[in-house]
Amino acid sequence: MGTIVHAAYTDGRKSALSVKKPKVVFVLGGPGSGKGTQCANIVEHFGYTHLSAGDLLRAEISSGSENGTMIQNMISEGKIVPPEVTIKLLEKAIMESANDKFLIDGFPRNEENRATFEAVTGIVPEFVLFFDCSEEEMERRILNRNQGRVDDNINTIRKRFKVFVESSLAVINYYNSKGKVRKIDADKPVAEVFEAVKAVFTPVNGGKVNFCIDMVGCCVGAIQLS
User: What is the pTM of this model?
Assistant: First the structure.
């Protein structure tokens, strides 16, 4: 069965991104897996701009808009927000940046997200960086991070795990069939995880590393490729 792409986003609508033509890397992994920290290291080493779908959505919630209220309700229930909401926020952030290469963290979350993003923007990712980490470890990290986020209670955490695995598996398998998935074993020690990340990005970046830092972030992910 094919994926339905929202007609309102494909009929006569040309994304500004089709003109800018940015390079995009999708970063996928389970909730609370440390994707933000790893992305910060990639930004520092390789000059990408990091766009967190979750951060953009939370900023929209904080704005007090009608969309923000809808997003808050869906996150509290462990659900995924409609793709057009996230895509609009991503488009705006990319167009406002002077950079031309981006890490999109936590998106696409499902096949509808993926198909709609590609149809609307005309952008296919350079590759997908997928961090594989056990659910037990991710749960421990979320409970220990103490960021005061309202979506971090144990029941919601487990709903988010379930949604991630059930929805994201199709996305990972789709891009894996295209040879675009770069899977990282995130259960290894932190330094080894980032060494694996650098091995992925260095060839893409023409062998250039901006500069090195001593401490690197933690890991991400939680599903098996078929």
Answer: 0.77
